[in-house]
Design goal:
alpha+beta; three-stranded antiparallel β-sheet; Ribosomal Protein L22, Chain A; single chain; 30% strand
Amino acid sequence: MGSRKHNSAEKRKEVRKTQYIARLRNVPTSPRKMRLVADLVRGMDVEKALNTLQYTQKEAANRVYHLLRSAIANWEVKNEGARIEDNELYIKQITVDSGRMLKRIQPAPQGRAHRIRKRSNHVTLMLGNRVPETNKVEDEENITTNNN
């Protein structure tokens, strides 16, 4: 591997260490229905989004709820000992993409046939911190200098 490729791969690895992502693939729900729920929680704090999803009546809300719990678990693995409340986690990005489409035939009158499209989707959820890491280090330094 060349040095440029190696350097760019190392940069991608470093960026990936600070990203907290969860993906849900091949969900047998149409993307349009899933986007309604995704738009509902986009940009919300994690605790508020969990409560909203828990009490939303749509079927897709349950799937996004479990996906959010998975993203939180991924965050906890990368930040052992840290609290969610202190870091002010929020849903930074949530995207719903179209997945594979199963095509079926429905019999119609007079010997015709209608095509039925059973859609699926892929959901990607990314968490972010409202409090940047650099500000936390500067705040800790200010606190220690003020106490002395």
